[in-house]
Design goal:
- The chain is flat and about 135 Å long.
- Helices cover about 50% and strands about 5% of the residues.
- A two-stranded antiparallel sheet has the order 1-2. The chain has a two-stranded antiparallel sheet with strand order 3-4.
- The longest helix is centred in the last third of the chain and has 21 residues, at about 395-415.
- It is mainly alpha-helical.
């Protein structure tokens, strides 16, 4: 039995309104088969009708947003339709995700809450918050809360943390030498009962260092007394050092003598009582502690004869003035010319701890040769420079700088020493033969032209002209 097919006639106006239908043809039939519809005598597949619905819906959305995007310019979509710039095609899956416009179509596009909203925003630009008044009726209100004072609490350092924290501070102090900086850093720490250990740690580190480090340690203890540590803490620290001397001797064999010098220096600076040593008389069984106290007693007795206790560590270090270093080098050379002990002169030069200033010794030594009248000074200075060169106490650069200084000032030296040019040439040649200086440095030695007081070729008569 044949069934008649229904003929559905759809006008163009009705086609545009088809998008309002809740279901499409495919959704009604579950997509099992393709339906066809006759329009104006032509059968049109249901898929074409679905595309027509999508296009009609897009047109309505474009007309709806035309007034909102009127000033943005136009662009053409893939279907040849005119679109506004910045408008995503509604069929795109990102259309709804990236569309930040209001869903209701209302609003002027201004930021929410006048710019006071959003993550990390504390209010509108320029807004100043007043002090919030405490509400007495607040159930969490506490009367004692208004009188509370909040302070940062720093826990006291234990023995392990103390050594780990203060060791870098003291080692850095040996580099810059600023006691005020160390004092400020120690005030920020809660030393608690470990205050007396500050001088102990400083002296222990100085025993393994140079003479200049011991001098800086004495100054540090003197400056910290009264601000960070008290005199009682200083006495307690030296008591502990005397007890720990048997262990300190293992690392520093000269620890008893050095600790004795620290005690004498502390008494001289006024941070340790003058009766401190007398309190140990007859009560010391440790050999090292007795040696330290004897050393301090000897040094303090020498101060009565006019010797300054502040020079117990010598006068070395790069922090000394140039005038003072020049004076020390001059005394070193004069003592060497009297004693002739090369090793002692080398030791004194190393104790000055100014390797960058060794050119001054070379300069002063050569000038002494030029000003001397005998061969003794000539040979002794030559032996001294040879020994310092072979032991690498004086480097090639310092030796070169010393000779170059003499070369530049030889015209002025010649005014006081008439034969300085000839003596300098001879001494430079001897140094070159001994391997002290190089050939280029020897060739730089200035020479003065020979003056002819007797005419050559005129019978040996003296020339009347003055030279």
């Amino acid at each position: 039995m044949e069934t008649e097919k229904e003929h559905v006639y759809v006008t163009s106006t009705e086609l545009e309104n088809l998008s309002d239908a809740p279901f499409s043809g495919d959704e009604e039939n579950g997509g099992s088969e393709e339906r066809k519809t006759e329009i104006n005598g032509n059968w049109i597949p249901a898929t074409s009708i679905t595309e027509a619905k999508i296009n009609a819906k897009a047109k309505r959305r474009l007309r709806k947003n035309s007034s909102r995007d009127s000033g943005r310019g136009d662009s053409v979509s893939e279907n040849g339709e005119t679109l506004k710039i910045g408008v995503v095609v509604p069929t795109s899956p990102k259309g709804k995700l990236l569309d930040r416009r209001s869903r209701s179509g209302k609003g002027r596009g201004l930021p929410k809450k006048g710019g006071a909203g959003g993550k990390g925003v504390w209010g509108t630009p320029g807004q100043v918050y007043d002090v919030e008044e405490v509400d007495i009726k607040d159930p969490n209100y506490d009367d004692d809360q208004e009188n509370c004072v909040y302070e940062t609490v720093v826990l006291p350092l234990d023995e392990r943390a103390f050594e780990k924290t203060l060791t870098p501070i003291i080692q850095e102090y040996f580099e810059h030498g600023d006691t005020n900086e160390v004092s400020e850093m120690l005030k920020d720490l809660n030393l608690g009962e470990m205050k007396y250990s500050v001088p102990v740690l400083a002296v222990s580190l100085a025993l393994e260092g140079k003479a200049s480090h011991r001098e800086m340690t004495s100054k540090l203890i003197s400056d910290l007394c009264g601000t960070v540590v008290s005199k009682t803490d200083v006495e307690k620290s030296f008591d502990r050092l005397l007890k720990e001397l048997p262990d300190l001797v293992l690392d520093s064999p000269k620890a008893p003598q050095l600790v004795g010098q620290f005690i004498a220096r502390a008494v001289g600076d006024g941070i340790l009582s003058s009766t401190y040593i007398d309190g140990y008389k007859g009560t010391v069984d440790c050999i090292q502690a007795r040696a330290a106290l004897d050393r301090a007693t000897v040094l303090l007795s020498m101060t009565k004869g006019g010797k300054r206790i502040d020079s117990v560590w010598g006068s070395g270090g790069g922090q000394q003035s140039v005038k003072h270093l020049v004076k020390e080098i001059d005394m070193l050379l004069k003592e060497y010319l009297l004693s002739g002990d090369v090793l002692e002169a080398e030791r004194c030069l190393q104790e000055l701890e100014v390797p960058h200033f060794h050119h001054e010794l070379v300069y002063e030594a050569v000038v002494m040769v030029l000003e001397s009248t005998g061969e003794k000074t000539f040979k002794m200075i030559l032996d001294l420079l040879k020994s310092l060169w072979r032991s690498s106490v004086i480097t090639m650069d310092q030796m070169k700088r010393g000779y170059e200084r003499v070369y530049r000032e030889i015209p002025d030296i010649n005014l006081d020493v008439p034969h300085s040019y000839s003596v300098l040439e001879r001494f430079v040649e001897e140094c070159f033969q001994a391997g002290i200086i190089s050939k280029p440095l020897r060739d730089l030695c200035p020479s003065r032209g020979r003056k002819r007081f007797v005419s050559e070729g005129d019978g040996g008569r003296l020339k009347l002209e003055s030279y």
